[in-house]
Design brief:
By secondary structure, the protein is mainly α. It has one domain. It is built from eight helices and no strands. Helix 2 runs antiparallel to helix 7. It is globular.
Length: 183
C-alpha cells in the first residue's frame, strides 16, 4: 500500500496510510497485551473469522489493483477531508485485518515484559519503537516508489505493474487462507 500510495499520491498519501497502519498496529498490540491475544490463539472461530476478513480484504485490494486502468502517477492535487479519511482508513484496515500481527505481538511481547515492573511503560516503549520503525520503513518504501514511478510513466509498464502488484495482494490473501491456528 505504501508503494502504491507513493507512486500515486506522494509523501502525503504514504504518511496518511502509514499513520492508519501504525494506529492499527497499536490497537492490535494493545489487544495482545490485554490478553485478548491468548483468546484469539485459542478460539478457532475468532481466528477463522479474522483470517477470512483479512484474506478477503487483501484479495479485494489485489483484484482492484489488477483491474485498475488508472496511471500510477497522478497530477498533484489537494487532498480533501474525505480522501484523507479514506487513505487513513485503508491503512488501518490493512493492519487490523491481519491475524498474523496479533499472533506476532502475542508471541513477542511476553518475552520482553518484566512482570515484576509496571506493564504499561514497558508496553509503551515497545509499541512506540515498533510504530516508529514501521512508519519509517513505510515512508522509505513510498519514497522509493515515487522515484520508481517516473520509470513507470508508460501505459504498458503501468499495466504490468498493476498486474504484478495485484497478483501479489491476491497471493498474500490466498496464503493467509492457508494460515493455521497455532496449537
Amino acid at each position: 500500500m505504501a508503494i502504491r500510495n507513493g507512486m500515486s499520491g506522494g509523501a502525503r498519501h504514504v504518511s496518511l496510510s502509514s499513520l492508519g497502519n501504525i494506529t492499527g498496529l497499536f490497537l492490535l498490540a494493545s489487544t495482545a497485551v490485554l490478553g485478548l491475544g491468548v483468546i484469539h490463539q485459542t478460539s478457532e472461530v475468532l481466528f477463522t473469522a479474522l483470517k477470512l476478513c483479512g484474506a478477503g480484504y487483501l484479495i479485494y485490494l489485489g483484484v482492484r489493483q489488477w483491474r485498475s486502468r488508472a496511471g500510477l502517477v497522478m497530477a498533484p492535487r489537494s487532498t480533501s477531508v474525505r480522501s484523507r479519511v479514506h487513505i487513513f482508513s485503508e491503512g488501518l484496515l490493512v493492519a487490523i485485518s491481519n491475524p498474523k500481527a496479533i499472533l506476532f505481538f502475542t508471541a513477542l511481547f511476553p518475552q520482553f515484559l518484566d512482570t515484576q515492573l509496571s506493564i504499561f511503560p514497558q508496553f509503551m516503549i515497545m509499541v512506540s519503537t515498533f510504530m516508529v520503525i514501521s512508519f519509517t520503513t513505510l515512508m522509505a518504501y513510498g519514497s522509493m516508489a515515487r522515484q520508481f514511478a517516473r520509470w513507470l510513466g508508460t501505459d504498458r509498464r503501468t499495466h504490468w505493474f498493476n498486474r504484478i502488484v495485484g497478483s501479489a495482494f491476491i497471493g498474500l490473501g490466498v496464503s493467509l487462507l492457508r494460515l493455521r491456528q497455532p496449537v
